[in-house]
Design goal:
Layout lengths: L1 H40 L1 E5 L7 H9 L7 E6 L3 E2 L1 H7 L7 E3 L4 E2 L3 E2 L12 E3 L6 E2 L12 E5 L4 E2 L21 E2 L12 E3 L6 E2 L11 E4 L5 E2 L12 E4 L6 E2 L9 E4 L16 E4 L13 E2 L3 H7 L8 H8 L4 E2 L6 E2 L2 H17 L2 H41 L1
Parallel strand pairs: 1-2, 2-4, 3-5, 4-7, 6-8, 7-9, 8-10, 9-20, 10-11, 12-14, 13-15, 14-16, 15-17, 16-18, 18-19
Antiparallel strand pairs: 21-22
Helix pairs in contact: 1-7, 5-6
């Protein structure tokens, strides 16, 4: 009877081990196959050139049979885009990185609703001749982090970047003379902004619900529209460089507690701004400056400088080569560049460059898979070892 009992126990143990190995095989299949698939499915495509209006055909040819659902990064090197070409890009549902720096856009205009509500879009480099960004062009791109554009951009249309919740920085230059209504509404990740001197009016809801901590208003602004800074709960400092206070519409500072910094000679005109939780401090000195962080310079001076150094190979490297981040000192209004900020800019550009590399993505995905598999195997081995030890103890106790 004892032998029979031992035989049954051994049989049960073998059955348990077999079940555990089957479970391991299933787990490995569930984990490794999707990881391998995701590595293969993440594709980069490059369009060398195309005829205006026929980008859809060029994308299909460049994809070479790859399902558009699996394409994440697109680079278009040459050609002129019109509304149909931007529509073709919307056929790539999981597009994350879009490089258009070498192209042009028809009449210098990014059309209305060009790339709105793209679920995965995170980095965009605009065509080199861009002058105007149309109404709602990039609105509701909730994962959009950064836009790189030429310094020729002068018009940012109504709601152009509204609800771009992840956009933490935005390039701006003195060339910008119009920022439309609601252009940056609900951009929660923006922590500061400089309004160029060419802007004379800030229209309704332009920055409502933004994550600003501070904002600088150029000297030519004469009017600030309804609810411009409404619900910017983090806003603490507003630097106004005009010699007279701009006229305020209703609810400009609704739910905002901030200090408005102006010059001594303008202090009297700002008395009407002292309302609710807004206080006035006549402590602003120095000259007004604008940083062009993130823009692609196209001036003759920049082009001359470019001839003295190797040409960058990618738009991300171009950011490193061209950008030296200038920070406007809040109290003195002086432009200062620090090594830490340069390092941050280089790191950001390096991340962008890495993101455009398919091999890098594959390597990251598989390394995570290997780690997960190793952990699971270690746990299974530990469980098996424990079962064997406990079985031996039970056999000794019964014998």
């Amino acid at each position: 009877m004892a032998k029979k009992t031992t035989y049954v126990k051994k049989k049960n143990l073998v059955l348990r081990i077999f079940i555990v190995f089957v479970a391991i095989a299933l787990l490995l299949g569930i984990i490794i196959l999707p990881l391998t698939a995701s590595a293969d499915d993440s594709e980069n495509i490059t369009v060398a050139s195309f005829e205006m209006g026929k980008l859809a055909d060029a994308l299909t040819e460049a994809a070479d049979g790859t399902d558009f659902n699996f394409i994440k990064n697109v680079a278009v090197l040459e050609g002129t885009l019109n509304a149909d070409d931007y529509a073709a890009l919307t056929n790539i549902p999981n597009l994350e990185i879009l490089e258009l720096a070498g192209t042009e856009t028809e009449n210098g205009i990014i059309p209305e609703n060009a790339l709105t509500s793209r679920n995965q879009l995170s980095l965009v480099t605009l065509p080199k001749n861009t002058v105007e960004i149309g109404k709602n062009a990039f609105s509701n791109n909730r994962k959009l982090i950064k836009v790189t554009m030429p310094s020729s951009v002068s018009v940012i249309g109504d709601y152009a970047f509204s609800s771009c919740e992840s956009m933490s920085e935005f390039p701006i230059s003195e060339a910008v003379t119009y920022i439309g209504e609601g252009a940056f509404q609900d951009c929660k990740a923006l922590t500061e902004f400089v309004i160029p001197s060419g802007i004379t009016e800030i229209y309704a809801n332009t920055f409502s619900k933004c994550g600003f901590e501070k904002i600088s208003i150029g000297p030519d602004v004469k009017k600030i529209g309804m609810s411009v800074f409404a619900d910017c709960n983090a806003l603490k400092d507003v630097y106004v460089y005009g010699t007279e206070a701009p006229a305020l519409d209703s609810d400009v500072f609704r739910n905002v507690s901030a200090t408005v910094h102006c010059s001594e000679e303008a202090e009297e005109s700002f008395e009407s701004w002292a309302q609710n939780n807004i206080t006035i401090a006549a402590d602003l000195t120095g000259e007004y400056t604008v940083s062009t962080v993130g823009t692609t310079e196209t001036t003759a001076e920049t082009e001359t400088a470019e001839t003295e150094k190797p040409a960058p190979e990618t738009a991300a490297e171009n950011d490193v080569a061209d950008e030296t981040e200038a920070v406007t000192d809040s109290s003195a209004g002086e432009e200062v560049t620090t090594s830490e900020e340069i390092a941050e800019t280089e790191a950001s550009a390096a991340e962008s460059s890495a993101a455009t590399s398919a091999p890098a993505e594959k390597s990251d995905g598989l390394s995570v898979g290997v780690v997960v598999v190793i952990v699971i195997m270690a746990v299974v081995i530990a469980v098996l070892a424990t079962m064997l030890v406990m079985t031996k103890k039970n056999n000794k106790t019964q014998s």
